[in-house]
TrEMBL record:
This is Phosphoribosylglycinamide formyltransferase. The keyword Transferase applies. It catalyses: N(1)-(5-phospho-beta-D-ribosyl)glycinamide + (6R)-10-formyltetrahydrofolate = N(2)-formyl-N(1)-(5-phospho-beta-D-ribosyl)glycinamide + (6S)-5,6,7,8-tetrahydrofolate + H(+). The keyword Protein biosynthesis does not apply.
């Protein structure tokens, strides 16, 4: 059984979907902890499923490295097999990535390497793209530059706003994430070998 820690910053919709999947005894992974970089509303999902949670406040630490050290201590305490970044709006410090690589995965609301960074949906609309997508990647020291584990296209429709497009991307992101975690747990997807473009 694969043990998973999930890190969030916001509402945790991907987290909720993963918790629901892991609630099925046939799913080969369990969420052992949920962490956040602030008092995120998504922590309520962990509470609802009886999963321990913690907050390591980014603003409570003098540097990103100090924040990363404390986050690392919390993760060491639960020893997850895999760390999922699910809407965590912080770049992990290189030392923390090195400690856990390649066992950190992240979701992104674009068809990488197109539109990396914090505003993937907005950037796709601004570029006039006819399609965008969702990706699940292995985290490295770059911004959305790690090996791609899964991705799927999502069309941009006439009249789309950032909100409407993002709402159509989210279900694809959730489905890809649930499948990637399942495949990692079943040894069907080697983390070291994503299809890097």
């Amino acid at each position: 059984m694969l043990s998973v820690a999930v890190l969030i910053s916001g509402t945790g919709s991907n987290l909720r979907a993963l918790l629901e999947a892991a609630d099925d005894p046939a799913y080969p992974a369990r969420i052992v902890a949920v962490g956040a970089d602030r008092d995120a509303s998504g922590l309520a999902h962990a509470e609802a499923f009886g999963v321990p949670s913690f907050v390591v406040g980014y603003r409570d630490h003098p540097t990103r490295e100090a924040w990363g050290e404390e986050l690392g201590r919390r993760l060491d305490a639960v020893q997850p097999d895999l760390i999922v970044l699910s809407g965590l709006m912080r770049l992990l410090p290189p030392a923390l990535v090195a400690r856990w690589a390649p066992r950190i995965v992240n979701t992104h609301p674009a068809y990488l390497p197109e539109f990396p960074g914090a505003h993937g949906v907005r950037d796709a609309l601004a570029a006039g793209a006819a399609q965008t997508g969702a990706s699940v990647i292995v985290v490295d020291d770059g911004v959305d530059t790690g090996p791609i584990l899964a991705q799927e296209r999502v069309p941009v429709l006439p009249g789309d706003t950032e909100d409407t497009l993002h709402e159509r991307i989210k279900p694809v992101e959730r489905r890809l994430l649930i499948d990637v975690v399942r495949r990692i747990a079943a040894d069907e997807l080697p983390l070291a070998g994503g299809a890097h473009p």
